[in-house]
């Protein structure tokens, strides 16, 4: 397939939402999800769709080196990956603009590096091709976020929900994207342009879909927009809405003289066609639409690929989603992890050492070289490599990264513990995030806190 | 309007009642609509009786109630009762001015006790209400708050015509695709609102909703009895849709819900304007409304009408010349005679008409007892009972000729005229809120003849304004009053008339559709430049300038009163100029205008004093004016302004023009260059524009000679 893939992998500084998880040593793309860098999910998926020409765009030199090192070792001989550095804070559109010259294929697939999904990008690409679209966006159901078993956090989610209302307008065949208002800027009533409804007759407004940050673009159009709209920084918030808005626009006025003549003579006929077509609306729906849209000669089409509800689709862009994704990947969406689970529904690396009376529940991963003392209990958690965990430790619903030391009697619940953290005896963490290298003092209790080393200590 | 209800038969379906409304009197159809309504009414009833087991119907009538009753009587609806047939009762009220009022009257009379079907009397339908009724009942059992089920129907699919087909306003609905609950309804598509605004709460509660612009509202509603009490509680509800439906949708305290039922087979359409009258009539002829088709209905009336090839319906006793040609999809009523070489295409001709020779009737509706003499042409028009078209008359598309209007020999009735023997009622407020306005028994109650005369702007029709004209000849004109359309204005004329939509309108629509939104661009709520933007801005511009002139004049007046000294006056005028962002030249014109106006005010009528005061004023204010006449262009502006004033605003100056011009020259307000250039430019202008140049010819000649002399001297 003549597709070039751009993976926007972010950097180390990009999202404050993910501090303290992201650090200099661990750029966002390499955050472990079930002990694999998050980027590997996207790359594996692309590989599965036979999309092997990749440009991975990383913000910042150091992060790029780390990503490059990892990619070249992990995907040697599997993918042709080029890691490109762009400066930080360009935004997604800015990053694309920076690498615009490298884009040569007819169509460009843009994937966010933090996407964890089982929707095949190949399917999106194929839809894009089939419709001859200018842009095709992957839309998926808004995940029912928040762990269902902890009442507290699900309560939080309910409060959050209205904030990230995405409004999407689709045509009757649900293939064409007619209207999009993304996320946070919808605090008010929804406004839909009447003309659009007039053109299509019927528009389906959905607020239960989210933009998954996976787009197929026609290269010429993408480059055009990037070039002419220099202020655009975000694909989701600016480029895509712009394309959707402008899709019905007629040809630039310069050529209108001839354009009018053409449409003038063919117009009656084409409306005749429409009438016939609509008789077989179900079959011909896409043709129907194509007809409508192609009448405006300068127009282009914006399409949507809507993932079915059963598909998993989640972006790692907040602490909450990090926890959710980890939980899901070892839980209900375990097919994503690429591991084969044992009969107890968990994975315990053979090189790990368990003390007596220590139990590892289902939906857990225990990676190589980690040791647990006696009478420990691990439930629904991920434990990284070479962790040393003492006795009487309880770990529930948590992520423990690599080289973490947890002393006796610690309780960890709903937390994320980064690399090289030391938890001294009887430390209790609940809903906390502990940044790399932090030392939690003995006997301390933390609840819903973000713990990280101050810069002076670094 | 009419209401009726059926008695429950034992073991029969739940008691249902029908309430039919006939809008008595469409504001734009002098007398015609009532009769149209009656015909439609017939179909409603036939339909209701035929297919849905409604046992009792109430026909609510206000205006023309006797006509409606008479019709019911004649058609055998009234007073029938007995198993299997529908009883029709007429409910009369003369003070109901809206659907809301009608329903309140019905509530007060207590005739309806259960669920009922509310249908407007101008609806033509052959749909089976069974499914909709069943749906409504089932839903009500589950959710008592579901008080109404609205029947909607897919409109024709072409994007250009699906809304213009019936000439009604465009409807935008939002419907929940799962439950079919109606979430949003907007039926007045004024283009000033480019956006549809959907409340965010609606969206949070319904993650998926469908916005429809491709649905027609059939105006058939299945209602729970709560609807009546809602109307009584909210005594300001008038319009069924605009007030009641919207009110329910907005109100979330009571939580009443409205659902929709999409009609997939069957026919339903409402006739509330001429275009829908045309469309529905054609649908009837083409038998979409079976069994409500001419031959079936007529067989019931015992007057035979038979369907011939190509959809031609002819009564058995039609006198048809052998050389006359009846084209496809036409209806000719009984006892009508059609002369030699006539052509009738796509038209309906009523009973007892006399049509002469060589008449062309195309796409028109000719009602009963119409006389059309030789050589007339009628296209795409509605001609009511008893109209007389004398030989050679031509009725252009989109006309409506009301009862007994006479059109003289060889008269051309221009397109979209509406002519009635009655003067147009003067109450301009008959806006659509009062759609069912009670102008009860139109003839006696209509306002005095003096109150409204034909608007006379249809200059091609020499109108018989004289009342005596009604009885007399009319050989040279039209007997009747031309009605202006009350609320919509000419813009909407094409939309609602019988005439086909003009090509350019279709073109425009198409462009409107494709010519989207450069506008919608960056900002979130832009104002879309409309297609007629350019003309708008011109108007605005004129407005702008005249406002400016007014302000300058006021400022000047204050200066005259001594309030402002001269320097400040200049400052103020400059300030105004900046505020209105106009050119220096505009200022010159405005200031000059103010000065001259002041002279005019000071002068007492006669030309001599006017000349004198003008000279005084100019002498006094020449510095001020000269302040703005730095270039020849600005001086020209003054001359042009002066001309304009003479022609339009202050005609008093027109005779003095040649006398004032030299004075302007003397005071150096305008230079000779400017005058000569002005004269030069005017040379090629229209005669009417040259008046003042002519008047000042002598002076201009003198200027020219002086100039030549100057040149010679220099040499």
Automatic annotation (TrEMBL), chain A:
Keywords: Cytoplasm, Initiation factor, Protein biosynthesis. Gene3D superfamilies: Hexapeptide repeat proteins, Spore Coat Polysaccharide Biosynthesis Protein SpsA, Chain A. Acts as a component of the translation initiation factor 2B (eIF2B) complex, which catalyzes the exchange of GDP for GTP on the eukaryotic initiation factor 2 (eIF2) complex gamma subunit. Its guanine nucleotide exchange factor activity is repressed when bound to eIF2 complex phosphorylated on the alpha subunit, thereby limiting the amount of methionyl-initiator methionine tRNA available to the ribosome and consequently global translation is repressed. One of its GO terms (cellular component) is eukaryotic translation initiation factor 2B complex. The keyword Cytoplasm applies. InterPro entries: eIF2B_gamma, LbH_EIF2B3/5, NTP_transferase_dom, Nucleotide-diphossugar_trans. It holds the Pfam family NTP_transferase. SUPFAM superfamilies: Nucleotide-diphospho-sugar transferases. Its main location: cytoplasm. Belongs to the eIF-2B gamma/epsilon subunits family. Residues 351-440 form the EIF2B subunit epsilon/gamma LbH domain. Residues 5-148 form the Nucleotidyl transferase domain. One of its GO terms (molecular function) is guanyl-nucleotide exchange factor activity. One of its GO terms (biological process) is cytoplasmic translational initiation. This is Translation initiation factor eIF2B subunit gamma. It is found in: Cytoplasm, Cytosol. Component of the translation initiation factor 2B (eIF2B) complex which is a heterodecamer of two sets of five different subunits: alpha, beta, gamma, delta and epsilon. Subunits alpha, beta and delta comprise a regulatory subcomplex and subunits epsilon and gamma comprise a catalytic subcomplex. Within the complex, the hexameric regulatory complex resides at the center, with the two heterodimeric catalytic subcomplexes bound on opposite sides. It comes from the Eukaryota.
Automatic annotation (TrEMBL), chain B:
Residues 542-713 form the W2 domain. SMART domains: eIF5C (SM00515). Pfam families: LbH_EIF2B, W2. It is found in: Cytoplasm, Cytosol. Its main location: cytoplasm. One of its GO terms (molecular function) is translation initiation factor activity. Residues 438-461 have a biased composition (Polar residues). Keywords: Cytoplasm, Initiation factor, Protein biosynthesis. Residues 29-38 have a biased composition (Low complexity). It comes from the Eukaryota. The keyword Protein transport does not apply. GO terms for cellular component: cytosol; eukaryotic translation initiation factor 2B complex. PROSITE patterns: W2 (PS51363). Residues 1-40, 421-474, 510-542 are annotated as: Disordered. Belongs to the eIF-2B gamma/epsilon subunits family. Component of the translation initiation factor 2B (eIF2B) complex which is a heterodecamer of two sets of five different subunits: alpha, beta, gamma, delta and epsilon. Subunits alpha, beta and delta comprise a regulatory subcomplex and subunits epsilon and gamma comprise a catalytic subcomplex. Within the complex, the hexameric regulatory complex resides at the center, with the two heterodimeric catalytic subcomplexes bound on opposite sides. This is Translation initiation factor eIF2B subunit epsilon.
């Amino acid at each position: 397939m003549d597709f070039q893939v751009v993976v926007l992998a972010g950097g180390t500084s990009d999202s404050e939402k993910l501090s303290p998880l992201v650090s200099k040593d661990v750029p966002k793309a390499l955050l472990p999800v079930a002990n694999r860098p998050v980027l590997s999910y996207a790359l594996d998926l692309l590989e599965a769709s036979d999309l092997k020409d990749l440009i991975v765009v990383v913000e910042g030199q150091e992060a790029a080196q780390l990503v490059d090192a990892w990619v070249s070792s992990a995907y040697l001989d599997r993918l042709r990956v080029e890691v490109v550095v762009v400066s930080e804070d360009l935004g997604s559109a800015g990053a694309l603009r920076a690498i615009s010259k490298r884009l040569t294929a007819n169509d460009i697939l843009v994937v966010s590096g933090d996407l964890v999904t089982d929707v095949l990008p190949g399917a999106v690409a194929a839809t894009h091709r089939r419709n001859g679209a200018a842009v095709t966006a992957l839309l998926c159901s808004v995940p029912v976020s928040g762990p269902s078993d902890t009442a507290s956090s699900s309560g939080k989610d309910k409060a959050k929900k209205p904030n990230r209302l995405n409004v999407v307008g689709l045509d009757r065949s649900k293939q064409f994207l007619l209207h999009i208002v993304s996320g946070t800027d919808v605090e008010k009533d929804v406004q839909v342009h009447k003309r659009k409804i007039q053109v299509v007759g019927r528009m389906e407004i959905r607020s239960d879909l989210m933009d998954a940050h996976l787009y197929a673009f026609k290269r010429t159009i993408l480059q055009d927009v990037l070039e002419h709209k220099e202020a655009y920084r975000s694909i989701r918030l600016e480029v895509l809405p712009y394309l959707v808005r402008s899709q019905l626009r007629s040809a630039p006025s310069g050529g209108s003289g001839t354009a009018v003549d053409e449409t003038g003579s063919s117009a009656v006929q084409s409306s005749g066609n429409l009438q016939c077509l609509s008789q077989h609306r179900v079959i011909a729906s896409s043709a129907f639409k194509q007809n409508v849209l192609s009448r405006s000669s300068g127009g282009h089409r914006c399409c949507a690929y809507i993932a079915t509800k059963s598909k998993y689709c989640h972006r790692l862009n907040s602490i909450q989603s990090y926890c959710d994704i980890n939980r899901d990947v070892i839980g209900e969406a375990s097919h994503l992890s690429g591991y084969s689970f044992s009969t107890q529904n968990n994975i315990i690396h053979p090189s790990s050492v368990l003390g007596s009376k220590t139990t590892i529940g289902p939906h857990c991963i225990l990676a190589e070289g980690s040791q647990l003392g006696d009478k420990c209990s691990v439930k629904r958690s991920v434990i990284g490599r070479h962790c040393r965990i003492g006795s009487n430790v309880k770990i529930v619903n948590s992520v423990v990264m690599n080289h973490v030391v947890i002393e006796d009697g610690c309780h960890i619940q709903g937390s994320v513990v980064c690399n090289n953290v030391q938890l001294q005896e009887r430390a209790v963490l609940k809903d906390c995030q502990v940044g790399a290298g932090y030392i939690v003092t003995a006997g301390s209790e933390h609840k819903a806190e973000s713990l990280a080393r101050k810069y002076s200590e670094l | 309007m009419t209401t009726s209800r059926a008695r429950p038969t034992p073991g029969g379906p739940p008691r249902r009642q029908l309430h039919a409304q006939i809008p008595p009197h469409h504001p734009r159809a002098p007398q015609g609509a009532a009769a149209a309504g009656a015909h439609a009414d017939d179909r409603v009833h036939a339909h209701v009786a035929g297919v849905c087991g409604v046992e009792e119907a109430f026909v609510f009538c206000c205006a023309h109630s006797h006509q409606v009753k008479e019709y019911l009587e004649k058609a055998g609806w009234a007073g029938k009762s007995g198993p299997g047939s529908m009883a029709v009762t007429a409910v009369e009220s003369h003070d109901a001015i809206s659907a809301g009022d009608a329903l309140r009257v019905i509530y007060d009379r207590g005739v309806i006790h259960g669920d009922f079907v509310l249908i407007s009397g101008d609806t033509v339908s052959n749909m089976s209400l069974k499914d909709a009724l069943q749906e409504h009942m089932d839903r009500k059992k589950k959710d008592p708050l579901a008080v109404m089920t609205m029947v909607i129907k897919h409109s024709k699919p072409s994007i250009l015509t699906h809304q213009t087909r019936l000439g009604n306003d465009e409807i935008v609905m939002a419907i929940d695709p799962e439950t079919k609950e109606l979430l949003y309804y907007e039926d007045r598509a004024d283009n000033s609102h480019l956006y549809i605004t959907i409340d965010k709460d609606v969206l949070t509660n319904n993650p998926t909703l469908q916005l429809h612009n491709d649905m027609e509202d059939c105006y058939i509603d299945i209602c729970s009895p709560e609807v009546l009490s809602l109307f009584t509680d909210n005594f300001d509800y008038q319009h069924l849709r605009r007030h009641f439906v919207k009110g329910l949708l907005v109100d979330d305290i009571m939580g009443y819900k409205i659902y929709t039922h999409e009609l997939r087979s069957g026919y339903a359409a409402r006739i509330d304007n001429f275009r829908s009258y045309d469309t529905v009539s054609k649908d009837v002829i083409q038998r979409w409304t079976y069994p409500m088709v001419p031959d079936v209905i007529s067989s019931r009336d015992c007057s035979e009408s038979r369907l011939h090839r190509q959809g031609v319906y002819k009564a058995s006793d039609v006198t048809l010349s052998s050389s006359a040609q009846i084209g496809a999809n036409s209806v000719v009523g009984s006892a009508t005679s059609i002369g030699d070489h006539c052509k009738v295409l796509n038209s309906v001709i009523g009973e007892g008409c006399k049509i002469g020779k060589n008449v062309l009737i195309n796409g028109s509706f000719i009602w009963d007892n119409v006389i059309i003499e030789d050589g007339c042409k009628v296209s795409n028009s509605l001609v009511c009972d008893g109209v007389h078209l004398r030989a050679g008359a031509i009725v252009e598309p989109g006309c409506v000729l009301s009862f007994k209007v006479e059109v003289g020999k060889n008269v051309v009735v221009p397109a979209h005229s509406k002519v009635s023997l009655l003067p147009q009622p003067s109450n301009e407020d008959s806006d659509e809120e009062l759609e069912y306005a009670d102008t009860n028994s139109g003839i006696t109650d209509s306002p005095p003849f003096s109150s409204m005369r034909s608007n006379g702007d249809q200059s091609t029709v020499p109108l018989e304004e004289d009342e005596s004209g009604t009885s007399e000849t009319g050989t040279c004109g039209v007997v009747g009053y031309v009605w202006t359309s009350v609320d919509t204005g000419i813009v909407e004329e094409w939309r609602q008339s019988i005439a086909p939509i003009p090509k350019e309108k279709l073109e425009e629509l198409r462009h409107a559709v494709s010519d989207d939104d450069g506008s919608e661009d960056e900002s979130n709520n832009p104002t879309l430049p409309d297609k007629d933007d350019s003309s708008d801005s011109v108007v605005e511009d004129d407005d702008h300038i005249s406002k400016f002139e007014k302000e300058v004049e006021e400022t000047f007046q204050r200066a005259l009163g001594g309030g402002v000294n001269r320097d400040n006056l200049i400052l103020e005028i400059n300030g105004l100029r900046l505020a209105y962002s106009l050119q220096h030249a505009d200022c010159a014109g405005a200031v000059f205008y103010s000065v001259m106006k002041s002279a005019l005010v000071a002068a007492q009528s006669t030309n001599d004093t006017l000349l004198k005061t003008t000279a005084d004023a100019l002498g006094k204010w020449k510095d001020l004016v000269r302040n703005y006449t730095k270039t020849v262009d600005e001086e020209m502006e003054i001359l042009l302004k002066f001309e304009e004033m003479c022609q339009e605003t202050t005609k008093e100056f027109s005779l003095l023009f040649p006398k004032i011009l030299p004075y302007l020259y003397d005071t150096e307000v305008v230079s000779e260059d400017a005058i000569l250039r002005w004269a030069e430019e005017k040379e090629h202008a229209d005669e009417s524009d040259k008046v003042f140049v002519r008047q000042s010819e002598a002076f201009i000649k003198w200027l020219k000679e002086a100039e030549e002399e100057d040149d010679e001297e220099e040499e």
